[in-house]
Predict the structure.
Amino acid sequence: MDPAEAAFDVAACLERVRLRDQTAARQLVEHLYPLVIRIVRSHLPRRVAEEDLAQDIFLKMFTRLEQYQGNVPFAHWVSRIAVTTCIDQLRAQKRRPEFRWADLSETEAEVLDHVLADEREAIPGDALAARELVQKLLGQLKPDDRLVLQLLDLEQKTLAEISALTGWNQTLVKVRAFRARRKLQKLFQDLQSKEKS
Amino acid sequence: MSRFDSSWQRLVALARQAPADPRDETAPLGFGTRVAAQAASRTATTGWTLFGRLALRGLLVAAAFGVAAIALNYSVLTSDQSVDYAAVDTVGDLLDFS
C-alpha cells in the first residue's frame, strides 16, 4: 500500500462514499487531487483547462466506483481513469499545431541544434527549454504515440507500469514506442529539410 | 542505437533534469465540495433518467397495443349494431310475461 494511502484510510472513506456521504466524497477528492493534477498536467490537451479535466476525471471515478473491486490500490485505479480521460481528450482534438523552427525560442532552437548535430558534449542551455521542446515534439504525434513516449522515455516508467496505466499489453507498448520514435525521426528529418530549404 | 535514437535520448535526459513543476498541487478552494455535489446529483439524475426511460418505453408499448386493438376491431366498431340489438332482445324475451 502507498504511504499516502496508508495515512488516509481509503477503504473506510470509500465505504462512506458508497453510503452517499458527501463529506467523505469531498475528502476523497481532496486526497486524490495531487495525483490527478500531476497526470493532467503531464498530458494536458491544448485549450482544455486543467481544472475542468480534473473534474471530469473525478466524476468518472464516482460513476464507476461500483466497478472498483480492490484488486489494485485505489490510486492506481484512479490513475488509469485519469490517463484514459486525458488520452480521450487528446483524441478528440484531431488537429495538431504545425511544428516550425521559427516558433521555437532561442534556447529551444539551440538545444535542438545540438541534438540534431549529434554533439557528444553536454547540451548547453536549459533543461526547462529541453522539456518545452520535448513537449512540442510530442505534441506533433498521435495521442497514443505521444502517451507511450511520455511515459516510457520522459517519465521512465516500466513496461509493466505503462501496461497497468493504459490497459495495453507490454508487447503493444514496445511496438507503439518503436513506431512513435520512427515518426518522431521523420518529423526531425522534415524539420531539417525545411530549415535547409 | 541509431543516431536519431541517441539524440532523442540525450534530449529527454536533459528534459528530465528540469525542476519539478512548482505549481500548487492542492485542490482549489471548494473544488472537492463542488465535485462531490455534482457526483451526488448525477447519481440521482441517472436514477430518474432510468425510471423515465422505462416509463416512456411502457407508455409506447401501451400505445402500440391500443392502436393494434382499435385496428383489429375496426370493422366491429364501425358496423351498424342497432339491427343486431333489435333482432336479439334477450332482456325483452326474459321479461316477456305475456
Remarks:
- The CA atoms of residues 158 and 190 of chain A lie 31 Å apart.
- Residues 1-95 of chain A form a domain with the Rna Polymerase Sigma Factor; Chain: A fold (CATH 1.10.1740.10).
